[in-house]
Design goal:
about 140 residues, mainly alpha, 5 helices, about 75% helix, about 0% strand, globular
């Protein structure tokens, strides 16, 4: 089991911030924001406090980046490669996150488009984590 000193905490923070920025672009009107709002039935007048929403989003990104670094380190050692990090990220994002969203979205009667946007973001998020963590030595 990896010890905290085996993890590159600065790389984890950078990976989380990078994925947070990816999310800002992903859910912006420039990419999928308009379609996501329509498919999610999102009402902008009932949105939460932006500080709270963005703060928790960043916190959860930190947790996810830390978890990916921890799993990669446990499986492959502290000097895991980019290829190994991408392998862990793909398994985690597709096998756990996207598949779990798929189950929930079916029961909630959400559209395939909504699932594809949300799952696609998290696959991209985990791949970005892997690139930062796998290249930062």
């Amino acid at each position: 089991m990896a010890a905290m000193e085996d993890l590159n905490l600065l790389a984890i923070v950078v990976a989380a911030v990078a994925s947070f920025l990816l999310g800002g672009l992903w859910y912006s009107p420039a990419l999928f924001g308009k379609v996501w709002m329509k498919e999610a039935g999102y009402d902008e007048s009932q949105q939460g406090h932006p500080g709270k929403v963005f703060g928790f989003a960043l916190l959860f990104s930190l947790v996810a980046a830390w978890a990916l670094a921890r799993v990669a380190t446990d499986w492959f050692g502290a000097d895991f490669s980019l290829h190994q990090a991408l392998h862990v990220a793909l398994m985690g994002s597709v096998g756990f996150v996207a598949a779990s969203f798929g189950v929930n979205y079916q029961f909630a009667q959400h559209s395939f488009k909504l699932w594809a946007i949300d799952a696609g973001y998290h696959i991209g998020q985990f791949m970005l984590f892997a690139v930062v963590l796998g290249l930062w030595k």
